[in-house]
Amino acid sequence: MHAGIIGWGAYIPRYRIKCSEIAELWGFDQPLVKSLNIEEKAVANVDEDATTMGWYAARSAILRAGIDVVGELGAIFVGTESKPYAVKPTATIIGDALGLPNKKLTSDMEFACRAAGEGIRISIGLISSGMLRYSLVIGSDTAQANPGDVLELTAASGAAAYIIGPKVESTAYFEGAYTYTSDTPDFWRRDGSPYPLHGEIFTDEPAYFNHIVNSVRGLMDELGLRPDDYDYAVFHQPNGRFPLKVGTELGFTKDKILPGLVNPWIGNTYNASALLGLAKVLEEAKPGQRILLATFGSGAGSDAFSIVTTDKLLTKVNIALKVTDMLNSKIYVGYDTYAKYRKLLERM
Amino acid sequence: MSFQRIWRLKDILLNLVGIKCSDCGYTSYPPKAACPKCSSRNVSRISLGSSGKVVSYTVINVPIEGFENMLPLVIALVETDNGRVLTQLTNVKPEEVYIGMEVEATVRRSATTLDGYVPYIVKFKRSSTNNA
Q: What is the ipTM of this complex?
C-alpha cells in the first residue's frame, strides 16, 4: 500500500440531548440506558443535514491537508445513510461548495454505517495504483430512529472527513486493510421508510461482533501483528459498550480503546462513528504509533485498517477544530427542541 | 424561488461571490453588472471571505412560507474583510446576538422549495476557535 491520511476533519453539532430524558419520556428502564454507556447524543440543528456536516468536516480536512491538494483532488466519496435526496448525489453538492475540480470521481456510497470505510479502501487502491493523487472521503449522518424505539437512545448526528493521498506525504499511512462482509439482516431501512428496523439482540453476535472480529483477526494474520503491537484501537461505536467488549475479545486492553471512544458523549453517528474516534486519536497520538481502525455496517460488513502515524502528524493537529473542542462545546436541548430539529414533528 | 434560479445563483449563495469596483474600490454583494456607487462597469468578481462582524441585525418571527421551522430568524448585516452581506445567523438565539459579534461562514440548508429542492446557502454562526 502506498497511501495514507494527508488531512482529517470532524464535525459534531453543538446541541445535545440527555439519553435519560428520552428514556424517561418513552418509559424505558434507566438501567437500560446505563447498560448502553451513552450519556448524551449530538443533535443536528434544523438547517443541518449530512451535506452541511460533511461540508464542514471536509473543509477542516482540506485545511489540515493544505489547500494545494484541492487542485488535484480526483475523487470524493460520501458514506451516508441519511442522504437529503433519495436520488441526487450529496457528493456533488459538497464538491461544488468546496470549490473542488469538476474532473473527479464523485459518489454517494451506501453500506449502512461502513460506506465511508469502503470509500477509504477504494481510495487506497486508486492512489496506490497511481490513478489519483488525492481523494476525499466523508462519513456523515443524521441518524434516523423511530420515536420510542430503543434506537432513539443512541442515533445521533456527526461527520468526519479524510484526505487520502500518497504515503510519502501522509500524517499517517495505511500498512494493511482487510474487509469481511456477509448477508446478515441485522438492520435495514426500506425505500420510502423514514426509520430503520433492527433485529434487537441479532445486531450483537451475528452482526457487529462476528464481522469486526473476523476483519481484525484477518488483518492481523495477514500483517503478522498482535494486539500488543498497537497503541490504539478504534471500533465502530453503536453504543458505548460494544467497542469495549469487542476490543477485549480481540485482546486489546481498555487503555488502547478508551482514547478513541466518543460515543458516550455524542451517540452513534453511523458513518462518522469510527472515523470520529480515529480523528480524536490522531489529535493525541505521537509519530510512529500504530492504530487499529475497524468500521462496521449492518447488512453486514467490517473494514479493518492498520495505520502508522508519521512525523508530519503533530504539525497538523491544531490547524482546524479538534474533536475534543467539539465534544466540550455543547448546548443541551429538551425533547421538544430535539423533535423540532430532527423533524419528528410536522406542521399541518 | 425556482430550483433553476437557485442553481444559477449557486456561486453567490455558496461562495459569497460579490463584485469590487476597479474605479472607486466599492464592494457589493450580491454581484451586479455595474458598481452601485459610481455606476462604473469596470467591476470584477471577488469572494467576500468567510469571517466578519455583525453590523446590525433584526429578528423575524412571522416568516414567509417554508421558513416556519427555523423561527425565530435572525437576519444580520455582516461586515467581512471584503464587503457587507445580508445573511441569516444560525445556532444562535436572538438574545445572544450583539453588534460587533464575530461570526464565520458556514453552509446550511435554506427552506425547501415547493417542488422539493433543498437549497444550500452560506449562513453565519458565532465564531470561535473552539466552538462548532
A: 0.93
